[in-house]
Design a protein that fits this description.
Order of helices and strands of chain A: HEHEHEHEEHEHEHEEEHEHHE
Number of strands of chain B: 2
CATH topology of the largest domain in chain A: D-Maltodextrin-Binding Protein, domain 2
Largest interface: A-B, 38 and 32 residues
Largest sheet of chain A: 10 strands, mixed
Mean pLDDT of chain A: 86
CATH superfamily of the largest domain in chain A: Periplasmic binding protein-like II
Distance between the termini of chain B: 51 Å
Number of domains of chain B: 1
Strand content of chain B: under 5%
CATH architecture of the largest domain in chain A: 3-Layer(aba) Sandwich
Oligomer: heterodimer
Number of domains of chain A: 2
CATH superfamily of chain B: MetI-like
Shape of chain B: globular
CATH topology of chain B: MetI-like fold
Distance between the termini of chain A: 66 Å
Low-confidence stretches of chain A: 17-22
Structural class of chain B: mainly alpha
Number of helices of chain A: 10
Radius of gyration of chain A: 22 Å
Helix content of chain B: over 70%
CATH architecture of chain B: Orthogonal Bundle
Shape of chain A: elongated
Strand order of the largest sheet of chain B: 1-2
Low-confidence stretches of chain B: none
Structural class of chain A: alpha/beta
Radius of gyration of chain B: 23 Å
Strand content of chain A: 15-25%
Largest sheet of chain B: 2 strands, antiparallel
Order of helices and strands of chain B: HHEEHHHHHHHHHH
Chain lengths: ~280, ~290
């Protein structure tokens, strides 16, 4: 019995270095749920071309990704928001140098149930709806129904982006918050499902999630501007007002395997994948 | 050599016996170490009685009153649903059911306990949530009530199995005495069996509640997670557990938010600790 235990211990010890060596052929990528599908698609194509390399992609939210880059448990962090000052200083303390690479653009679609008569809103109206100042569809020329506001959880880059760019209109002194009545749902898919099922709901997500079960609202910057739909062309031309860059963060300038992957992502081929997944390429 | 072996095994078993206590103490110390740091930024009263939870704003607003009330409301709702059903089920199994049905019921209840909470949450999301929305004509079905109903399913197995044990351990002479005095079956159960096993049943209820208040996944999926002080059970609520689970990922290690989540952990730990102590007190009270 004791011999057996000893044998198992020896075998495990022998296996550990083998596992560590294996790590050199693999990249860990973690972060934004919005970007998971996109980066997964890149990783699959990349692995097809380089069968001896392995890339693992996991979600969890932009904050999760950056936190694990800082703690050294992933090689690349996906983020749908810029890294915060606080995170940079924390990373510096741990000897990590976050390096930002812009890899694609994303339009945030604001969606309602297809039966909802409201089909266009200004940024200002959106801010009032999501902060709770407007609480009935009647005030937006819709039916007499309480608005059910859906938002992502606070670990989501989408949540942070929407708050800073729609609610606070990029004003750093603004104190506007999501209405406390807003339902915080754990994923973009959960928002899609609830909007599809609830005629009084309004929510937002990356435009890759738009489907016929939800209606995307046309958005105008202000009352004088044109109302624009969240489409690839409109985001590309800068007409659609709620669009944002998507980033990958590495520790210092990319090197070795990570550089190879980043080069692929930014290549013409890599950017074509962006279009397939319904995001907007940064170059044509 | 044999003595040596004996000695080693004894010590290992001794260690295993104390392991759980050691772990609890270590976990609690870790919680305290990480969680108490938040009180450098915000007073304990402001933390517990604050009405706004905006952890990622600058400066963050860290009031957990809506979260505490959310947890309590969901738990209360689950208790109201699960206690009568659970206790009645235990009475049926222990006193009334024929042996065959009893076996089937017991197996079914064990099976119910074995369903992972994420599965219950998922089922609740697609069936219960639209149902609550249509029946009560509320704007959304993601409400405290949906959470309570789903959590009641999770508490029932605990309540039934412990309450049933308590009913079994009532001495046979009590029952025989009551029946011999001419009491009906129901009178015996209501007037003799239940009072005699009350401490065990109360313990069952407390442990069931303990199970509910710590549950995370299902409530996160179906209660809507809006951090607002609830006015009715048909409103979305955000619970303590769901807050930790949902925000863990974002919290930058060492930030106010991170410490606040650990402080929520302390609050939860205290609540389950108190509930468990009460259950223990009832369970070990001298039987009469």
């Amino acid at each position: 019995m004791l011999k057996k235990i000893f044998a198992i211990l020896v075998v495990t010890m022998l296996l550990i270095p083998a596992y560590v060596v294996g790590e050199e052929n693999s990249i860990q990528i973690k972060g934004s749920d919005t970007m998971v599908n996109l980066v997964q698609a890149w990783a699959e194509k990349f692995m097809e071309k380089n069968p001896n390399l392995f890339i693992a992609v996991t979600g969890g939210g932009s904050g999760t990704g950056l936190a694990s880059l800082i703690s050294g448990t992933c090689d690349i962090a996906m983020s749908s928001r810029n890294i915060k000052e606080k995170e940079i200083s924390l990373a510096k303390q741990k000897g990590i140098n976050p390096y930002e690479i812009k890899v694609a653009l994303d339009g945030l679609a604001v969606v309602v149930h297809p039966k909802n008569p409201v089909s266009k809103l200004t940024l200002n109206q959106l801010a009032q709806v999501f902060s709770g100042e407007i609480s009935n569809w009647k005030e937006l020329d819709g039916e007499d129904k309480k608005i059910v506001v859906l938002s992502r959880e606070v670990n989501s880059g989408t949540h942070v982006y929407f708050k800073e760019h729609v609610l606070r209109k990029q004003d750093p002194n603004s104190k506007k918050e999501f209405s406390p009545d807003a339902l915080l749902l754990p994923s973009s898919q959960a928002i899609a499902d609830e909007v599809a099922a609830n005629e009084a709901a309004i929510g937002y997500y990356g435009m890759g999630y738009i489907s016929p079960k939800q209606k995307a609202i046309l958005v105008a910057k202000d009352e004088e501007s044109e109302y624009e739909a969240p489409t690839v062309e409109n985001v590309n031309e800068g007409k659609y007002p709620i669009s944002r860059p998507l980033f990958l963060y590495t520790n210092g300038q990319p090197q070795g395997l990570v550089k190879k992957f980043i080069d692929y992502v930014l290549s013409k081929e890599g950017q074509e994948v962006v279009l397939e997944i319904d995001f907007v390429p940064i170059r044509k | 050599m044999r003595k040596f072996k004996e000695f080693i095994i004894e010590k290992i078993i001794f260690l295993c016996g104390f392991a759980s206590i050691i772990f609890v103490i270590l976990i609690f110390l870790f919680l305290l170490k990480e969680g108490l740091a938040v009180f450098k930024i915000i007073g304990p009263l402001q933390f517990i009685l604050g009405k706004n939870w905006y952890p990622i704003s600058d400066p963050p607003q860290l009031g957990i009153l809506p979260l505490i009330l959310g947890s309590l409301l969901v738990t209360l709702g689950a208790a109201v649903i699960s206690i009568p059903i659970g206790v009645a089920c235990a009475i049926y199994i222990a006193e009334i059911a024929p042996i065959k049905i009893k076996e089937i019921l017991k197996a079914g209840i064990e099976l119910l306990a074995a369903i992972p909470s994420v599965v219950l949450g998922f089922i609740g999301m697609v069936t219960l949530v639209p149902w609550v929305k249509n029946i009560f004509k509320v704007p959304t079905g993601l409400t405290a009530l949906s959470g309570s109903i789903m959590l009641a399913f999770m508490a029932i197995p605990t309540i039934v199995s412990i309450a049933e044990d308590a009913l079994y351990s009532v001495p046979k002479s009590y029952k025989e005495g009551a029946l011999a005095l001419g009491a009906t079956h129901w009178q015996t159960i209501w007037r003799v069996m239940l009072p005699a096993s009350s401490s065990g049943i109360l313990a069952a209820v407390m442990l069931g509640i303990g199970r509910v208040i710590g549950e995370t996944m299902a409530v996160m999926m179906i209660t809507g997670n809006a951090a607002v002080i609830p006015q009715s059970i048909l409103q979305p609520v955000r619970t303590l557990t769901a807050t930790i689970a949902a925000e863990m990922g974002e919290a930058v290690v060492g930030s106010e938010h991170y410490f606040a989540l650990f402080a929520i952990g302390i609050v939860l730990f205290m609540i389950s600790f108190v509930i468990n102590i009460i259950a223990e007190l009832f369970l070990h009270r001298k039987k009469w």
